[in-house]
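Re: the multi-chain job from yesterday

Posting the exact lines I submitted so nobody has to dig through the queue logs.
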Amino acid sequence: GAVVSQHPSRVICKSGTSVKIECRSLDFQATTMFWYRQFPKQSLMLMATSNEGSKATYEQGVEKDKFLINHASLTLSTLTVTSAHPEDSSFYICSATGGGALIYEQFFGPGTRLTVL
Amino acid sequence: AQSVTQPDIHITVSEGASLELRCNYSYGATPYLFWYVQSPGQGLQLLLKYFSGDTLVQGIKGFEAEFKRSQSSFNLRKPSVHWSDAAEYFCAVGPLYSGGGADGLTFGKGTHLIIQP
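And the result, structure tokens for all chains:
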């Protein structure tokens, strides 16, 4: 149980285009979803927190107009990288927490590798 | 602000030998502590977590960790490593919940574990 999926697993796009990444909780309702970014050989950095039906809360230094987050349902959050540039190339990982016994752990998706040419 | 320090960027251990990965944290209250493992190009897998109670926690794959409040440490140990343990290991700390709801985790920079045959 408590599985989180991400789609796509890899995406390559041209500079200036927008890319949408989906994060789904497959077998539980995710009251909160998180988006992290990981540069090569580095740690995960929290980008934003989203609660279902609310606006996302972005960490300091993260451009909210560039990284659009939508958490429209209890099982789906999307991250849209708008007008992507090569410096946005990274590994994006989402995680989710649920209710009840699931509140004490974050369940991570497998990640999405974004390459901007 | 909370922070996590993993002082060892790389560790090389012979197969069958014991392992200890260090983690120190800075946090203003009783932390929730986690160890995750990440294989190349993959998401994160939870090895173990500490919330309260017994300071020695057992995890999956034969790992254990000990919470030492006086030293602000949460070191990961394994008595005998296997070649399949080669991966990146991340220590993380978080409150899980604060006044506004669920919170993201703060990760250390990771320790790259190399297993020698």
